[in-house]
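User: Before I run my own analysis I want an independent prediction to cross-check against. Here's the chain; please return only the structure tokens and, at the end, one sentence I can use as a sanity check.
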Amino acid sequence: MADLPPPPAPAGAYVPAVAHDGVVHSAGAVPFENGALAVTGRVGDDVDLDAARRAARICARNALSAVAAAAGGLDNIERILRTGVFVQCTADFKDIARVADGASEALLEVLGERGRGVRTSVGVYSLPLDAAVEVELVAAYRR
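Assistant: Structure tokens:
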């Protein structure tokens, strides 16, 4: 699929993405790259803004890979409807939206305007496997 990584393998009792009735939802994707977590830790503490943005890019590409696989291919993705970005960060870290821009920019690079959708970005205390960022997607697809 384009230059996307293979869809992430589930780390538990779930599937990477589910397609139903023209909409596909991804599970949360963490920044796995070449089989290992690329960025772990808390943003604003042991992870800086640039590393967090890089993590968000990796997460978005992983989530998009799962969405594309469930939709029957990247060309079947009509558009991203929603991106959810979770940033494991300190209580005083205020650049959560700038971290999330890393994910949004990656989607635009791969899909062009089809990658532009609404977005929610939140700071959280903890993420699975100590990942610095987690991204989930909702997309419309051609059936």
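Sanity check: The two ends are 18 Å apart (CA to CA).
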